[in-house]
Amino acid sequence: MKLYKNFNIAKNHKRSLILIGNFDGVHLGHQKLFKLANSYKKRFNLNIGVLTFEPMPKMFFNKDIKNFRISNNNQKNIILKSLGVDFIITQKFDEKFSKIKSEFFIKEILSKKLEAKYIFVSTNFKFGNKREGDVNQLIKNEKIHNYKIVKPQPLILSQKVISSSYIRSLLERGNLKKTNRLLGRNWSIEGMVQKGRQQGKKIGFPTCNLDIKDYVIATPGVYAVNVKRKNSNKPLKAIANLGYRPTFNQKKILLEVHIFNFSGNLYNKYLSIEFIKFIRKEKKFKNVNQLRKQIQSDLKVAKKS
Questions:
Q1: Do 7 and 121 fall within a single domain?
Q2: pTM recorded for the entire structure
Q3: I want to staple 16 with a disulfide (CB 3.0 to 4.6 A). Which of 47, 74, 93, 274 is the partner?
């Protein structure tokens, strides 16, 4: 799979199917869309390309939004590759790009640069300066620019449209079980292990500390997790605390992971933390002894998960 950072794509990737969107989380709704795209791919013998934006437009226009993503770019790209995507264009979304007119986007980018044959967009897709462009404008230009718009139906389960915003709300409410079901896999956070304040080690439970960057903040609390290391297919069972560590009066959200029966230095190692089960919400304890006792109880639950 080829990765591009602009619209100057290889000749063999022109005249392709182009799917436009953030595809945050690449959930079951997105997977349904890529299944449809693959049927077009086989029928018309075309490549599948994804056009996505970095940062996500919502985060660009709302600087106050810090913790928003379900998955990072690396995770997203790996999943998209597994879904049959041939190339991804990750366009930098900045002030200049945000001011591009919708007409220019259609004529100069979709038509001239990409020579798109089929364009997959959601019915509420907006683009161009001040979100002036919409799906109706794209459809009106079909014959002029020789492409065809495909508007797939959203995936609806239990009378609920499966969307990235819905999955974020599930994570924020602590419904990990449903989140994992709608993602079609266990939700995970990737990051580099940092040197912490050694609080876990002092009370007998050494942890790997990860900054969660701009991932959505799931309900702060204790989780049973699996830890995956780069270049290793064997997951390590662990327990994690996602939160602010109120017993130690911390204010920054942190992901702390205690791996069972593990000895070794993981500082500056890149880990993937896969969330298996929500155990309990985070709370403040009167003293370290109370916290230690609770952790021992949590460990028993996590080891059975």
A1: yes
A2: 0.90
A3: 47
